[in-house]
Amino acid sequence: MAVPVAHAAPGKPTERSKQKALAEAERAGLQQKLTALKKDIGKTESAKEDAADTLAESEAAISDANRALRDLQQEQNDTNSKLTALGAERERLSATVKDQQQQLAQMLRQHYVAGNEDRIKLLLSGDNPNRINRDLQMLSYVSQAQAKLLESLRTSLKAVEDNQAATQNAKDELGEIAQEQLQQKNKLEQEKARRAALLAQLSNKLVAQRKEVGNVERDEQRLGGLVTRLNKLIEEQAAAAAAEKRRQEQLAAARAAAKAKAEAEQRALAKARAAEAERLRLARAAAAREAAAKAAAMANAGKSGTIKPQQPATPVTPPPPVKLDPIDADEPKVAATPVPPEPKEPPAKAADIALAPAAPAGAFASLKGQMRAPVNGRVAAKYGSKRGDGPAWKGVFIKAAEGAEIHTVAGGRVVFAEWLRGFGNLIIVDHGGQYMSIYGNNQSLLKRPGDVVKAGDAIASVGNSGGNEESGLYFELRLRGAAFDPSGWVKF
Description:
492 residues, ten-stranded antiparallel beta sheet
């Protein structure tokens, strides 16, 4: 059940807004890399204008707004669940506080009835000392129980206070979400109207350009260039991620070695102290025995009336003190195990490892023939079939209803999610082992570069972005940058 929305207090950022700002800052570095990569592709092309480019900004904005609304809906559901859990916790804490307050009130009442000078009365009562001692011990137990109950009550009251703060923060977050949802809905409606107007103006031009063979070839070259550069970037980031993993392992090993060394030194010190204490005990015991023997001898001599000249006592030599160094002076000292130095390399930046493969190299190949179609629809164009007078299809085109969810065919990491000429809102998933799946002409992209996805996750929604005349999904599979027939891999 949804909790009523409370607007956030102005000037007081919520935990959600702080985390959101941090996530956006982390994504900014990766987005700069991908933007630079896309610009690099554009440098190799002619400056010929494409009618679909006019739609780029509007279609990208529609995608962003839809993704934001989806994310906000999920956040709203999570926050409502959090509020429900906080409410249940608040009821439990209130019951605990009430019970503890009742126990404390009962104790105070009993203490008041018994009087405030119980201990003094007991000490001055003249009663049996054993009974007085027993009663004093019982009073001590009662005092300890009171102190423990008071501490428990303080802890419970602090938990109630924290619960109230968390509840207020969650309500403030709901207020933020509601406000952002309203903004994104307005933005979405405006961009849809803008795109519709642009399509009406450009319809004839778009139809003419789609018929040009050269445009299709340039689109394929553009996508091929993007995939080649992405593969290179993924390899670089995979190497950076491996280096970062080694650095972390070296750090862990250095810390473990330092900890082991410190623990060994502590054990050796404790052992030496125990040995020294035993040496001193033995020395004192020997000295005590010697003193007792002397006293006994003097007593016997006094009884007999004859005092014999005493022989000088053999001095008791205490055991030598224990040293931390090796016992034998001629024994060479054992060098301590060297602690590996902590690596001095700086930690890898998030943007430098964000596209590292998330799936093992052989995972995708093992799914051959088992993967489900990315969207429900009819295959209108197959891999290898001719496009009129143009080149053959390098993927498949699946006609589907606008807005239908598109699912990734296998687990991996999103490495590209942006508008690209000829393919509209395009999303590419890397599956490890240089396998990629490509999804084009989408209305909205629901994931961002760097996101890890599982098989079946919704990653986009069906559309006709990029100047496509029909609503549907353009789908490709690639290995080492080259497209191959997906029909033997995916169940269409």
